[in-house]
Write a structure and sequence with these properties.
With about 300 residues, the chain is α+β, with helices and mostly antiparallel strands. It has a single domain, classed as Aminohydrolase, N-terminal nucleophile (Ntn) domain (Glutamine Phosphoribosylpyrophosphate, subunit 1, domain 1, 4-Layer Sandwich), CATH 3.60.20. Helices cover about 35% and strands about 20% of the residues. It contains eight helices and eleven strands.
Length: about 300
């Protein structure tokens, strides 16, 4: 078929032009990425009914951070302590204070400890919802739940309910302690005040490093049947792993809880020795001689 006006014999080549990079618009406001805050808190129960914990001490704010800054631990009862992982640490203190008030005068058992802390979390979340959304209408969450549809038009009620749903409790807590009989317990409380119990397998972690820490503890065979020395090593190894995988701060706060006592005297050589043995010979095996060295050192629990 002979070419027609609609079928040209050839096309003129377009003049060469350099490729332009795509244009990226700058966001109106920089926001930190959503997700778990860059931290790790770890706890594990030993066969002696001690609880070994390790956490970083780094605090981050937008593009800045500082290590060896904050102990992420608060006591809310003589025998119960909470480790903290939060995007905003200022929201944790009111929850801790409420948990302390809720526990006052109540028997020391696992059920009460869980109920007091979960209630504290929900109380604080209700207060934030009131402050942020409802205070301008001189009402609170209790009134909104009971009479909200009578107080507001359907459109306004639905809008307020949508705004309330957007408010989250950006705090995770790993709670450990001993009941009146001296039995050790572990549980977590997260938004919106739900808990998960970790008495079995006997260890848990929170924060951005939780997967790295838990993975190492499983690999090292951590169980409630191990003694305090093996558990100290395993918990430290989990913390060191989280540093490399999750960008957690290197400074480490090591803490051991036992009934009637708050901690043990940490010899200055302990953490550096465990870290060196782990880096030189471990990852993931237990270095030769490190457990014997810890046992013969006769660590003083007090």
């Amino acid at each position: 078929m002979p070419p027609g006006p609609h079928l040209p014999l050839h096309r003129e080549p377009k003049p060469w032009r350099p490729l332009r990079p795509p244009i990226f618009r700058k966001p109106e406001r920089w926001r930190p990425p959503k997700g778990k805050t860059v931290t790790v808190c770890i706890a594990a129960i030993t066969r002696e009914n001690y609880i070994v914990t390790a956490s970083d001490t780094m605090v981050s704010y937008f593009m800045s951070s500082t290590d060896a800054s904050t102990v992420k631990m608060e006591e809310f009862h003589e025998d119960w302590i909470a480790l903290i992982a939060a995007d905003d640490l200022t929201q944790c203190i009111p929850i801790m204070e409420r948990a302390k008030e809720n526990f006052t005068g109540k028997p020391n058992n696992f059920r009460v400890a869980r109920a007091c802390f979960k209630r504290a979390y929900r109380q604080h979340l209700d207060e934030r919802m009131t402050d942020i959304v409802l205070a301008k209408f001189s009402t609170n969450m209790k009134q909104f739940r009971e009479r909200g549809k009578a107080l507001f038009t359907e459109t306004v009620y639905n809008q307020l309910a949508s705004e309330i749903r957007e408010i989250k409790g950006e705090c995770d807590f790993l709670i450990f302690g001993l009941d009146a009989q001296g039995a050790a317990h572990l549980f977590t409380v997260t938004d919106p005040g739900k808990d998960e119990i970790y008495d079995k397998p006997g260890f848990a972690a929170i924060g951005s490093g939780l997967y790295a820490a838990n993975g190492m503890l499983y690999q090292l065979g951590q169980t409630v049947d191990l003694n305090v020395y093996q558990t100290i090593f395993n918990v430290c190894a989990a913390k060191f792993t989280a540093e490399r995988v999750a960008g957690v701060g290197k400074d480490t706060f090591l803490f051991v809880k036992k009934k009637g006592c708050h901690a043990f005297s940490r010899e200055s050589w302990l953490l550096p020795t465990i870290r060196k043995a782990w880096e030189d010979q471990g990852q993931p095996r237990v270095p030769d001689g490190i457990l014997k060295q810890m046992e013969t050192a006769n660590l003083a629990f007090s």
